[in-house]
Amino acid sequence: MSSFDGLFSLVESVLGQSAAHWLREHVEVPRGLLAFSWNQQAVHRAWLAEGLNLCLLHKLVDAVPDGRRYVEEQAQQGRKVVFDHGAIRTVDWPANGELPRGRQAFARLLEPLGFTDVRTYPLTKLNMTGWGYRQMDLPEDIAQFFVSELHPGRFSQTFQQAVTRVVSSSLDPLQAEHTSILERLSLTRHCSLGEARTLLPALYRAFGRQHGVVLEADYQSLLDESAEMAWIATEGNSFNHLTDRVQDLNACVAQQRDLQRPMKDSIEVSASGRVMQTAYRACTVTRGLIDAAGHYREHQVPGSFVEFIQRKVDPENGRIDLNFDSSNAQGIFKMTDSKA
Questions:
Q1: Contact between residue 40 and residue 192 where contact means Cβ atoms under 8 Å apart
Q2: 262: Cβ–Cβ under 8 A, 6 or more apart, which residues?
Q3: What is the pLDDT of residue 328?
Q4: Which residues pair with 146 in a beta bridge?
Q5: DSSP H helices in the chain
Q6: Tell me, what's the pLDDT at 270?
Q7: What value does the mean pLDDT take over residues 276-287?
Q8: Which CATH architecture fits 64-185+211-336?
Q9: DSSP helix/strand/coil, 245
Q10: Fewer Cβ atoms within 10 Å of its own Cβ: the N or the C terminal residue of the chain?
């Protein structure tokens, strides 16, 4: 079995054969992985990082029909998508149930996979902060994570009380055996294939909603002050969006508009001029909330979406610019604001 066969076998152990085959046919996997150990006794962390990213990409296209259609249309044109980054939202709040506070719930699993927090991005308009986590073995090739924290302390007391009721019921998807394997990865950058098969499903589950059912009144209190926190209330720590890295964003946008896809009105351009981003508007999903009478009622709320990014070369180092941009991020985040 080749290393790539092994990677997709690992993905299959989480998602099943059909999903693993779909990913192999539709998503570019970096050849640079072949420089790292894939062995029954020693699987390098870069393979686990890529395996997790593939699983999470599939989870999002399963949840966003427009995203699956886009990826499959790219394949029909002879192109596999290039997974640039995924984004998750966390809550900077002490009453977070079993989960560590804010981004620490994800730093503890991303860092052992070789991801490093390389830059901080103030998202002041949203009362949030973002961090770019880059995989240091293959920084240009393995998708980054944009991890954001919402700061409830900057909102009203009513809002903060609603946040506590929502997130304080959170359960931790990582058990002692998983944290033990993560510790080994931190120390040696490797784990056994058996350990990888134990760890990956838990990492996959971490990118989801860990808290319980939400009260309709709390959801409305959150929505009144922060569309982002309302989104977290229904979607948790799921991927907010995934991003395809394209060569020509203007051409991509023109094609998507010709196809009458739900595109953002404008392209966000970074202060450097080297990073350009736009996106589909978020899909609509059905989520249940508990009303004042204690009944479970379904509501239509914003889900996740697909983003498109073009990264130009930084003339100072001759490499593509892997940074994010605070203004760009705040513009992209509006895709999940039902009032935008």
A1: yes
A2: 66, 280, 281
A3: 82
A4: 87, 132
A5: 3-15, 17-26, 45-63, 65-76, 104-110, 157-167, 176-188, 193-206, 216-225, 227-235, 249-258, 326-333
A6: 93
A7: 95
A8: Roll (3.10)
A9: strand
A10: N
Q: DSSP assignment, residue 91?
A: E
**CA nearest neighbour of 60 among 86, 81, 82:** 86
Q: Using an 8 Å Cβ cutoff, are 23 and 54 in contact?
A: yes
The alpha-carbon radius of gyration of the chain (Å, integer) is: 20
Q: Taking a C-beta distance cutoff of 8 angstroms, is the pair 99, 170 a contact?
A: yes
Contacts of the segment 191-197: beta carbons below 8 A, 24+ positions apart: 191/42, 191/43, 191/45, 191/48, 192/40, 192/41, 192/42, 192/43, 193/6, 193/10, 193/39, 193/40, 193/41, 193/43, 195/43, 196/10, 196/43, 196/47, 196/48, 196/51, 197/10, 197/13
3-state secondary structure 176-217: HHHHHHHHHHHHHCEECHHHHHHHHHHHHHHCCCCCCCCEHH
Which among 174, 153, 151 has a CA at the least distance from the CA of 98?
A: 174
Identity of the amino acid at 338 = S
Whether the predicted pLDDT of 207 surpasses 60: yes
Residue 340 has pLDDT above 80, yes or no: no
Question: To which residue do tokens 């989104």 refer?
Answer: 231
Q: Which of 292, 236, 243 is nearest to 145 (CA)?
A: 243
* pLDDT, mean of residues 208-218: 98
Q: What confidence score (pLDDT) does residue 339 get?
A: 61
| Structure-block tokens of residue 4 | 């790539």
Q: What is the pLDDT of residues 127-136, one digit of tens each?
A: 999 999 999 9
Position 338 pLDDT exceeds 70? no
Locate the domains of the chain by residue range: 64-185+211-336
C-beta neighbour count of 230 within 10 angstroms: 25
d(CA 223, CA 172): 25
